[in-house]
Specification:
Strand content of chain B: over 45%
Number of strands of chain A: 9
Largest interface: A-B, 28 and 24 residues
Radius of gyration of chain A: 13 Å
Shape of chain B: globular
Strand content of chain A: 35-45%
Number of helices of chain A: 0
Number of helices of chain B: 0
Structural class of chain B: mainly beta
Order of helices and strands of chain B: EEEEEEEEEEE
Largest sheet of chain B: 7 strands, mixed
Oligomer: heterodimer
Order of helices and strands of chain A: EEEEEEEEE
Chain lengths: 110, 117
């Protein structure tokens, strides 16, 4: 099972919206709604931002939203803020009954 | 809120066994959760290692299954990872986490393990 494909970097100015894609296959992203997104500030514990494609856990800003179409999931950050600068990883359950993560995207706030 | 903290040797000899512990605070380990290990090699994305359910079942990444064991210690409220026959390719930051419904709801800060002589 290969890692899910994400763009290496995405950038935007404060207040703008950005979207991070996460491309898998019909055996993972395309097969299930079990897609999650994690935010990771280096040196800190990663944080769950989105589960089940589009569900926001309690405490996560509504500026974060998720969606999925076929084999590609997406995370959109609206109203970009300096604190959003971090690494973001997607993850999906797979037909082999384990999980695969994405290659990771570094978000830069210009 | 459940908090997790990894601990263990930062350096392991090639062909040896990597052993890490995750201390859980703020909640019992025998709750309805999947206790999980994930690793991230330098410059790469995370890799799911495996998980053990509080009731005993376990799942492992097929690429590591022959070398890995995850166990729970209800008495000390911790869980552990063992990975044997390690090579330099096992050098990574290792994270423990608490799994909920198909996602990791809590993570530790991670601990770097280097495989080198």
């Amino acid at each position: 099972q290969s890692a899910l494909t994400q763009p290496a970097s995405v950038s935007g100015s404060p207040g703008q919206s950005i979207t991070i894609s996460c491309t898998g296959t019909s055996s993972d992203v395309g097969a299930y709604t079990h897609v999650s997104w994690y935010q990771h500030h280096p040196g800190k514990a990663p944080q769950l931002m989105i589960s089940e494609v589009s569900n926001r856990p309690s405490g996560v800003s509504n500026r974060f939203s998720g969606s999925k179409s076929d084999n590609t999931a997406s995370l959109t950050i609206s109203g970009l803020q300096a604190e959003d600068e971090a690494d973001y990883y997607c993850s999906s359950y797979t037909s082999s009954d384990f999980y695969v993560f994405g290659t990771g995207t570094k978000v830069t706030v210009l | 809120q459940v908090q997790l903290k990894e601990s263990g040797p930062g350096l392991v000899q090639p062909s040896g066994t990597l052993s890490l512990t995750c201390a859980v605070s703020g909640g019992p380990i025998n709750s309805q959760s999947w206790w999980t290990w994930v690793r991230q090699p330098p410059g790469k994305g995370p890799e799911w290692i495996g998980e053990r359910y509080h009731a005993g079942g376990a799942k492992y990444n097929p690429s590591l299954k022959s070398r890995v064991t995850i166990s729970l210690d209800n008495t000390e409220n911790k869980f552990s990872l063992w990975l044997n026959s390690v090579t330099a390719a096992d050098t990574a930051v290792y994270y423990c986490g608490r799994g909920g419904y198909y996602s990791l709801v809590s993570w530790g800060q991670g601990t770097l393990v280097t495989v080198s002589s």
